[in-house]
What we know:
Distance between the termini: 48 Å
Mean pLDDT: 86
Helix content: over 70%
Number of strands: 0
Radius of gyration: 26 Å
Low-confidence stretches: 639-652
Amino acid sequence: MADGTTDRWLGKGTALALRIILIGFALFQLYTSFAGMMEPLVQRGLFLGLGLGSVYLLSAAEGGVKGARRILDIVLALAGYYVCFHVAFNNQRLSDFMGELSTFDIALGFIALALVLEAARRTIGWFLPLLALAGLLYFYLGSAYVSGPWQPPRVSTLTLIETTYASTETIFGYMVDMGTRVIAVFIIFGALLLSTGATEIFIKLATLIAGRSWGGQAKVCTASSALFGTVTGSAVANVMALGPITIPTMHRAGYTKSYAAAIEAVASAGGQIMPPVMGAGAFIMAEMLDIPYSSVVVAALIPAILYFLTIWFSVGFRARKMNIRPLDRSEMPAARELLDPYTALPMYLPVGVLIGMLAMDLTPTLAGATAVATLIVTQVILRGAKCLAEGRTHELGATYREYLSQVLEGLYDAGRAIAMIAVLLACAAIVVKVLTATGAGVKVSSVILSLSGDNLVFVLILTAVLAILLGMDVPTTASYILAAAVAAPIVIKLGVAPLNAHLFIFYFAILSAITPPVCASVFAAASIAKVNFWKVGGHAVVLAIGLYLIPFLFIFRTGVLMEGSWLQIAYDTGITSIAIIAITAASTGYFFGPLNWPLRIFVYGAAALLFYPAAWSDIVGLVMIAALAGVSYFREPRTSGAPQRQPADLKL
């Protein structure tokens, strides 16, 4: 009895402490975003420490964890906080090149590495931590056990800890710096938007945009995921936030549950490449290339549009094929709901401020922090103004208490997400450091070059496969970082511009989230729909056929990255859009009317010609598509008066 009571009190105390720490973590990030970053080891030590310890405290606060396991997790949490805070509090001594590490420093270094690996395992699974552990063993012991060209330089224990722990080179390196300086504030912004009501506004806006077209229910999902993704930059977050609303809606309209889940998974993954706030990898890309983040945003704009255009036409063709009617006018939101100054303006204004500041080439940190401040202040003013305008002065206290609760919930969710990204970045940094310090990255690059015979197309295919494979059990950010470390130098060496090469890799890292057998976005959507994972994965791959070809255009039709004259940009974008429409028509089996397999193969061939960057292939492809469109349009009867298929007739 006593033991059970003590454990319950310990659980409640842990949960309360965790809540305070994570809210404080988010507030600390907001403060430094405005006031400026501290000394590198101080800022990064506090950032990783709060993240690392909180991952273990999250485990200790779980309802199913009891007794000795909970106590162990609390001890690990305290150790996680301490080993990183030790670096922050001793930054001057550790930064002194003339200073020597003590035995205690070295011991803490080994503990920190072990804690990072275990926290990463708990957060993202086995693959990346095992890769990091193998890398550390290769770095530390490889000179004694590996011979030949793959033998790494000899490394002492002191050098190992100095490189990985007691410096700004690895777990406190530039990746963690990007986490604390840029990524965290955008996570906070997205979390606060969600907690204060943005989901409803985004879905209403998407419904107004897409609801009256064929496949409107699925297009609402596509449009809302694009809008939502532009402020969250996370595939799984998109699925979990929108999926419970969009998947049942699509199923009621007539789509199967597995197909509806696939639409949500694919659309949500695209949020990571949707400007102005893309996935965390985009910020790291700008840092790696030493270019303004706005340059990445501009280059990614047309590819993002092409991504969602692919889904848009795919679900539209399928809706016509299955005769799933557009939404009725009575189901559409009134435009005034989206222009209500009390509910809509607090969502639009912060996003507008963010876009404007990024367009002015102000730092992402300042832009994100200002957007957060705009959101909070605007909500405070307009919620109070609404009460006063409606004569509900007596409800001001309750209104602000509710708002405070929403803000605290958003800060807690943000702190939790930041803690996980901090651990992920630290673990990925270990792998990247090993690749560079041992020369293994160069050796792997040489192997890829030898396999491809220096052929650019083969190198790109191998790079795409590498990015997808690396992303099968890790988030997009880690997949991009690892693939870029190995493959980007090769692609650049073969004459591709650095930004084009990195966007190519980043895009395929995003596609790993929807590519079976391991794809987090698909798994999340399948769990919401309560259907077989493989059915959802199969539909997702068919939906994404055109998406797997788009990145190759970054190399061969560079106008889609806003490179070249406006004429070239318009031409490349137009040809690509037609190719995307053709390939989705062939995949769906509908183009102004049903397509049998010979016609589908014919359309695939036309799309392939348009993807090939030559004037003759563009002309032939366009003629083929125009001919088929004309024949299909005049051959097939219009279906506007046909009865709608009912959901009851469908299977999962």
